[in-house]
Design goal:
about 400 residues; mainly alpha; 434 Repressor (Amino-terminal Domain); 3 domains; 21 helices; 5 strands; elongated
């Protein structure tokens, strides 16, 4: 018997095939050396061809039609897998993609391997192993998420959003490293969220949190963050950028140069969010503002409140601080952040404004502190419940950012 070895090249494969054909022509006797050589050579050739000439998997629709033919199934028999006769027609004619729910049913009911029906190995493994995630995908606020650009530029109908909820949400979560396995139930164990009479939608809140992290992925050239850099003096220097008409943009640039992301992301329905702060996957703090109340004074106070959380509270016990600043609270951490924010914007010894103060007096105070008059107007209105006196003198933040807080994120 000739010496046999593992085939490692096309030339060796060609020679092995020639030898195989020659042995087959000899029709060797059972148990002979030639027959043994033939068997071993066949195994070596098969191994080389498996590694170097893999057979393409059949297309999903071809696999479904093949199984239908095998089992004698008509199109009407496929309704239980696709949902309706019209969907059967659309899928089999290549006009509708398979949803993950359809794939689960086809795998379980017809035994079609999941890796043939789907090109995502992780999801295919889940389906093959019968893993069901504790996630009701349709409960996410899909329509509002689509409105605010979570799923790209494609417009989906209400029916499509419902049918492809799992596909859309998996794609959205997968777009942010580390967020693929997020489940809404995790939110309460990782976030400091003050309870109030308004019950926040946990699914909407989690989606918003992921969107914020996704926005930081666009800000690539951020500086290194040095822990402890944020203190009262840091915040007071930042407050002075409010004097400029471009204050919010200058604030973002200032924070960016210190390794801190500032993200503007509209709130989703039933989240009641003004702002939040977290640490992203790369270890940089992230301040996220919704501009739910689109006033310049609100922008500056919310920004300072979130920075105070970084300085005072973001110590690893919580991954997120999530804030509704327009509610009464006796939460000690929120009171501490409020106090530091007020002190950063207007030092207590400088606050000599009373309920009879004029607009001129308030402007003079702002000028002496080198901050925006809107900051003084806003504090006056909150402390003395006197919005009519100052409201028209406080500009909208969105007009300075070219930003629509109801629909889309600003230009990066």
């Amino acid at each position: 018997m000739a010496t046999l070895k593992v085939i490692k090249s096309d030339l060796e494969h060609e020679n092995a095939m020639a030898r195989l054909m020659a042995l087959m022509d000899l029709d060797p006797a059972s148990g002979s050396d030639d027959e043994n050589e033939l068997e071993v050579l066949s195994v070596l050739i098969a191994q080389y061809e498996h590694e170097n000439f893999p057979i393409d998997k059949p297309e999903p629709i071809e696999a479904i039609k093949f199984r239908m033919d095998q089992q004698g199934l008509a199109r009407k028999d496929m309704v239980e897998y696709f949902g309706s006769a019209s969907k059967v027609s659309e899928v089999l004619n290549g006009k509708r993609p398979l949803s993950i729910n359809m794939i689960r049913k086809l795998n379980k009911g017809l035994g079609i391997p999941a890796d043939i029906l789907i090109q995502e190995p992780e999801i295919a493994k889940e389906i093959e192993e019968g893993i069901e995630l504790d996630m009701d995908w349709q409960v996410f606020p899909l329509r509002d998420m689509q409105k605010k650009g979570y799923f790209g530029d494609i417009a989906y109908s209400a029916t499509q959003l419902k049918n492809y909820a799992e596909d859309l949400m998996r794609g959205f979560l997968k777009s942010v490293p580390g967020c693929e396995d997020i489940q809404p139930a995790m939110m309460r164990t990782s976030a400091h969220l003050v309870n109030n009479n308004k019950i926040a939608d946990e699914y909407a809140l989690k989606a918003w949190q992921v969107k914020v992290l996704k926005e930081t992925c666009f800000q690539k050239a951020i500086s290194e963050y040095k822990k402890g850099v944020i203190d009262l003096n840091f915040m007071r220097r930042l407050a002075k950028t409010s004097w400029s008409d471009q204050g919010p943009l200058l604030a973002r640039e200032y924070l960016f140069k210190h390794g801190i992301h500032l993200v503007f992301e509209p709130h989703l329905d039933k989240t009641y969010l003004d702002g939040a702060v977290c640490i992203n996957q790369k270890g940089n703090p992230v301040v996220a503002l919704t501009l739910r109340y689109d006033r310049l004074d609100d922008f500056w106070f919310t920004l300072m409140h979130e920075l105070a959380h970084i300085a005072l509270h973001l110590d690893g016990n919580y991954q997120w601080f999530i804030d509704d600043l327009h509610m009464e609270t006796d939460d000690i951490k929120e009171e501490e952040a409020n106090d530091m924010a007020r002190e950063a914007l207007i030092p207590s010894e400088e606050w000599l404004i009373n309920d009879e103060s004029s607009l001129k007096e308030m402007r003079l105070l702002a000028e002496s502190l080198e901050i925006s008059p809107s900051v003084v107007f806003g504090r006056f209105a909150r402390e003395y419940d006197s919005w009519p006196k100052v409201r028209k003198h406080i500009p909208k933040t969105s007009s300075l950012l070219n930003y629509d807080p109801g629909r889309t994120h600003p230009t990066h």
